[in-house]
Specification:
Order of helices and strands: HEEHHHHH
Number of strands: 2
């Protein structure tokens, strides 16, 4: 009997009753830590970019891709916060003098930076 394309590529079949079922498994993928940015992008892919999500999942590159997105987003987030703090003059001295104002202004900066990262990296 001639080999199928699946068998020529190294695939095997498993007998279940009278049927031969292909033994299909996803390629092994190295587990990498993923933070909140990677999780948000994963949710976005699942909901709005299903083909991209499926391609990354079946090729075994999903975790590496999400870890890279997470790293890029975190670096961008930190750079934005530092830049905005310098531009607005938010210093440790302000923290010592008026902790409540410092907290409010820093919270505003974090919210702005979060929106920028979401638009530039996470939801693209």
């Amino acid at each position: 009997m001639a080999k199928t394309i699946f068998e020529e590529l190294g695939g095997r079949y498993e007998r279940q009753g009278d049927y031969l079922i292909p033994c299909i498994a996803l390629p092994a993928e190295e587990e990498q830590p993923m933070g909140i940015w990677g999780q948000r992008h994963l949710d976005y892919l699942k909901q709005y970019r299903k083909v991209t999500y499926t391609n990354l999942l079946t090729s075994g590159r999903l975790n590496a891709y999400l870890a890279d997105i997470d790293r890029q987003a975190q670096e961008r987030f930190v750079r934005l916060i530092e830049g905005m703090k310098q531009a607005q003059g938010i210093t440790e001295r302000l923290k010592e003098e008026n902790a409540l104002e410092w907290t409010g202004r820093l919270g505003n900066i974090r919210a702005c930076a979060r929106e920028i990262v979401n638009e530039e990296i996470i939801f693209t």
